[in-house]
Amino acid sequence: MSAEPSAEVGAEPSAGLFAEIEAAALRLAGKIERTPCLHSRTLSEIIGAEVWIKFENLQFTASFKERGALNRLLDLDDAQRRRGVIAASAGNHAQGVSYHARRLGIPTVIVMPMATPAVKVARTRAFGAEVVLCGESFDEARERAIALAAERRLTWIHPYDDRAVIAGQGTLGIELAEQVPGVDSVVIPVGGGGLIAGVACALRALSPGTAVIGVQTERYPGMYNAFHGRNRPVERGTIAEGIAVIEPGRITRERVRADVADLLLVGETMIEEAILLLLEVEKTVVEGAGAAGLAALIAHRDRFAGQRVATVISGGNIDPILMIGILERGMVRSGRLARIRISVRDTPGALARLTALIAECQANIEEVHHQRAFSNMPLQNAEVEVVIQTRGHEHVAEVIDALRRSGFDARLPAAGTRAS
After folding, report:
1. Which domain covers residue 322, as residue numbers?
2. Do the beta carbons of residue 189 and residue 312 sit within 8 Å?
3. What is the CATH number of the domain that holds 132?
4. Of the residues 65, 98, 120, 207, which is catalytic?
């Protein structure tokens, strides 16, 4: 395994890093967006707390990663700029590095995991970077990037375990302290830890009464394990690929231990729910990692009850195909999309009568499957499976009741089953 370029472990007091964050804020002023942080009345009612949302998905590349990437690029000397830079990323760091490197005239190579969403790969190439797809995870892509850095004499731009990157991300914390003074808790999505390390340091200096809390997906609990001394296993595959990091950084681990109050975990279903809530309530598109903070507020709402709490939408680069799947699954869970099985007499007009009854109930038919051969029903009968759009679970029950009153044997299929 290739040795990673050495990084100075965070032995310095928080004051030293905060001075670098303040310097980064001056360097980045006017070059990145000062994103809004807005109060959400509806989410506050749902969670039982005063909820503020920091919209980092409104950066040009739709992610906070621009902050750290640009601050690190501005540190390069002339020789390093001419030779070029290399980074490993599941997408957002790649776009941040590529976009600002192109602006500064710096050649860029990006190594991305094979499963990176196509939208992120396309955007990175559009910014002029050479993209190398390698490995099943970020960690495998990182090893390839480190090897290429040595071969081509490129400067390695670490996505999180670098002081200049952490300082750049920390500028978000300065903005938060100004936008929501006296906030009780700030919830931050955590992968390798660069964002939370910088934000926690800034808030410790500017708002010492604020508790900074990290959140990871249950499938990638690397920083959670390091913080709590646990050994939860990594489970490959998550919709929050932006925080799918097996091993957190060395510098970031030290900073999290120094400045972070707690680390929480959330499941995949809760992240899906948060994505849908942000789409429906805030009218904003969010990727899985970006929704992790809200997912934590939902999953651990008792912990935040009555507080003034802020969370960061860290990114909005979600694959459209994944978003479609999340929308459909969300509609199923809410009862707005339902599958009903109905036994009907296999006679002319029976199917027409069935569909007319569903229409009378003000439900819209999306799919119809009419089974004869692939069914255990008697030969005189057929099994019809319909997928309908409804107003919710109560409406589904009304449709089934109406069908039964009209003589149809209608039922919801057992969970996980399909038509034969």
Report:
1. 14-63+162-327
2. yes
3. 3.40.50.1100
4. 65
